[in-house]
């Protein structure tokens, strides 16, 4: 059996942990630059607030119904996610972190007659007690069915956040009423295709012939169908595979015109990418820099460009990568434009112990490696951004617009709550 643990309205729940007076009240969280609504409490959903709605269009409505509005606090959400995952790993050691608010647990090590609902309730209570985050738990014989069970745990009021699908007849009844688009891995295009061929429910997909499924949905689709039949085809991925591409990009809070501000942004993005490379013990051979203006400002001149820089030798050293990224920016920057977004993408990624050295590229690699280890150690201990390169600047006029940002309660010393005894 597999369990899928999913945090309820995760971004909203993180805000409520440190503002408990918001329990039972409508709360929403906005996307980058306070643009669209990306997370809603159940109370906000009940008011008819839609996911992805532009916040400025609903400003009067939000004020009228006293909806608490927050900017995305990614530092807080990332740290709270790590706390939830650590808590789950103490209960069930075999865990796959699927996303920032979801994790699969392998329950096959538990004995056959173990009370699965009792375990699921224990997980709920432990995570809530240790982190303050409410979770839903779905348990089933496969990961795909566990997704279905979690969906029912969230949507069925009588389940109280836990659903166990173990009986074959019960699974069949559930799949009979489940729309095919609710199945994990069935996107909009597959939904249209399946509906066109008369497959509208998960049960109809489960009963489709193997040959037809493999022909039209490939081997991946066939695995999914077998999972719906109770045959486990997707094992837990307990070791996360290294990313093949690492990108840091931002839509600026204010339009950027001068080269110095754009230079600061690109240097910061390259530095972030370098840290991510070292985190997964990888190096990159190619750095791409891209910039573009706002296409929605039709009265303004438009420009976009990208430059790929092939490095003589793969590296994950921040000064090197910043230097190459800024060189790429210099080649594509044009004055007279108002830039809306920029980013750095690193590809051609290889393990750091498999770097092909260059005969004529002389770098004191040992010294740089020691330097980067010291920097990462300090950043990990004192917080991201403790050490910066001068070229990254301090003003950051391009930074995200976050007018409703909550404190970073768990990652910044100055934001830790002070408890006063009455």
Report on the structure:
This protein is an alpha+beta fold. Helices cover 39% and strands 20% of the residues. It has 13 helices and twelve strands. The chain has helices at residues 10-17, 42-46, 59-64, 74-91, 116-131, 143-155, 168-177, 188-196, 202-206, 210-228, 259-279, 318-332, 365-382; strands at residues 2-7, 27-30, 37-40, 68-70, 95-99, 102-106, 135-140, 162-164, 246-256, 282-293, 304-315, 339-351. A five-stranded mixed beta sheet has the order 5-6-1-7-8. Helix 6 links the parallel strand 7 and strand 8. Helix 4 packs antiparallel against helix 5 (116-131) and helix 11 packs antiparallel against helix 12. The radius of gyration is 25 Å and the shape is globular. The mean pLDDT is 90.
Question: What's this, in brief?
Answer:
Helices cover 39% and strands 20% of the residues. It contains 13 helices and twelve strands. A five-stranded mixed β-sheet has the order 5-6-1-7-8. The protein has a four-stranded antiparallel β-sheet with strand order 9-12-10-11. It has a three-stranded mixed β-sheet with strand order 3-2-4.
């Amino acid at each position: 059996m597999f369990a899928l643990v999913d945090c309820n309205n995760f971004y909203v729940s993180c805000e409520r942990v440190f503002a408990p007076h918001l329990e039972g009240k409508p709360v929403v969280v906005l996307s980058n630059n306070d643009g669209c609504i990306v997370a809603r409490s159940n109370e906000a959903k009940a008011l008819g607030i839609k996911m992805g709605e532009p916040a400025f269009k609903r400003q009067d409505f939000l004020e009228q119904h006293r909806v608490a509005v927050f900017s995305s606090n990614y530092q807080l959400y990332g740290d709270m996610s790590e706390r939830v995952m650590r808590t789950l790993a103490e209960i069930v050691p075999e865990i796959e972190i699927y996303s920032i608010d979801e994790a699969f647990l392998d329950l096959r090590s538990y004995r056959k007659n173990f009370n699965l609902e009792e375990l699921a309730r224990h997980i709920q209570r432990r995570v809530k007690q240790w982190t303050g985050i409410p979770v839903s738990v779905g348990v089933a014989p496969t990961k795909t069915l566990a997704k279905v069970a979690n969906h029912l745990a969230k949507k069925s009021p009588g389940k109280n956040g836990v659903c166990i699908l173990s009986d074959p007849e019960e699974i069949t009844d559930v799949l009979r009423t489940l729309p095919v688009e609710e199945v994990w891995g069935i996107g909009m295009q597959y939904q249209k295709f399946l509906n066109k061929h008369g497959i509208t429910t998960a049960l109809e997909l489960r009963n489709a012939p193997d040959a037809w499924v493999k022909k039209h949905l490939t081997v991946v689709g066939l695995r999914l169908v077998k999972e719906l039949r109770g045959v486990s085809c997707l094992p837990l991925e307990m070791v996360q595979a290294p990313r093949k591409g690492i990108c840091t990009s931002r839509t600026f809070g204010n339009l950027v015109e001068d080269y110095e501000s754009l230079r600061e942004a690109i240097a910061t993005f390259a530095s972030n990418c370098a840290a991510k490379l070292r985190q997964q013990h990888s190096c990159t051979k190619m750095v791409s820099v891209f910039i573009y203006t706002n296409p929605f400002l039709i009265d303004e001149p438009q420009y976009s460009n990208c430059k790929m820089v092939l490095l003589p030798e793969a590296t994950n050293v921040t000064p090197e990568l910043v230097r190459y990224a800024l060189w790429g920016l210099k080649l594509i920057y044009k004055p007279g434009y108002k830039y809306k977004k920029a980013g750095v993408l690193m590809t051609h990624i290889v393990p750091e112990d498999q770097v092909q050295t260059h005969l004529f590229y002389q770098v004191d690699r040992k010294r740089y490696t020691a330097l980067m280890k010291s920097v990462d150690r300090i950043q990990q201990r004192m917080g991201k951004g403790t050490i910066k390169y001068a070229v990254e600047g301090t003003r950051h006029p391009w930074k995200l617009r976050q007018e409703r940002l909550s404190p970073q309660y768990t990652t910044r010393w100055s934001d830790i709550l002070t408890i006063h005894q009455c």
